[in-house]
Amino acid sequence: MNRYPEIADRLMGLDEAVTRFVKDGCQLAIGGFTITRNPMAVAYEIIRQGVKDIHLV
Q: What is the domain range of residue 22?
């Protein structure tokens, strides 16, 4: 049983999240570069999808 059912319906895969929220020419801030390196997965997915003209903040 999920402890937080209201959150479960908002979960999505990385590919869907990048498709929905990262567009050509957007400004993007990526954090969390310490232990897990999860932001690198986001960066790789952005590159894989061919998003262009990203401005990193």
A: 5-56
Q: Which of 31, 22, 29 is nearest to 52 (CA)?
A: 22
Query: Structurally, how many domains does the chain consist of?
Result: 1
pTM for the model stands at 0.72
Six-digit token string for 44:
């790789």
Q: What is the pLDDT of residues 2-29, one digit of tens each?
A: 676 676 677 889 999 999 999 999 998 8
The Cα–Cα gap between 19 and 33 comes to 22
The size of the chain, in residues, is 57
Residue 18 CB coordination number (10 Å):
21
DSSP code for 44: H
